[in-house]
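Readers outside the structure-tokenisation community will struggle with the description of the input data as it stands. Showing the layout once, in full, would remove most of the difficulty. For illustration, here is how one protein appears when written out as sequence plus structure tokens:
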Amino acid sequence: MNTRRHFLKTSATFAAGSFLLPQFADAAKVAKRKVGLQLYTVRKEMLDDATGTLKQLAKLGYKELESARSEKGNYYGLQPKEIKKITQDLGMRLVSGHVHIDNDWQRSVDAAAEAGQPYLICSSMSSDAQTVENYQRTADEFSKAAEDCKKVNIVFGYHNHETEFEKVDGQVLYDILLDRTDPDLVKMELDLGWVIATGNDPLKYFTKYPNRFPLWHLKDMDKVKKESTEFGKGMVNIAEMFKNESKSGMKHFFVEQEEYTSTPMESLKYNYDYLKKMDLV
């Protein structure tokens, strides 16, 4: 009798636990999301006082960072090891950086390795010619750049704007970059705001090119002005994007805003609070 009672009690506990498992799994998944920031959002502030600005961002709750080349270099006047230590001391991590494939390319790769960042992102193409030939040539350039990055255990990627989604001879130019490069070698950082502003759907890209987008720029876009705005005020369904993160292959996302209702820091607080309120982080 005692054995049966013990069995029934154990079975009931197991059943209850099984019922709750999916809920706990979802909660754990959300808890693991760290809010990232593309530092171009606070470009002026970073140039004026990089360390002080990073401290402010840490207080707001931002944990992961992506730098962008500035007039003071790739790290706003800081050295690679310097920004690595500052961010680590603040409980943050430099995950990625925007650079160009130019005469300083190898120096940028070496600096990224020194800074300890796992990703290096080309933020603009060498030529802005909207031709199939240029995009094919650029895809080959990306493949070579990705090999350079692989040698130092860095993942190479490309960040889109809006012009890449134009069609030439029936082809979407952006798709040429995806189709002509090795999906294991060349990744994409999808700027969700720009994709939607062009009338395209990121979810269709997640389906067509699964696991190709380990990085996102999380940006809302004003429907009329077609410029960035605070979360929830534009045309991007942010919650829907996160529902499809696994299909995308998303590992890190960076909040980015280029125009502001008030100040960059106030907008960043608003965006962080929005993500918390929506239970997305």
Observations:
- The chain has twelve helices and twelve strands.
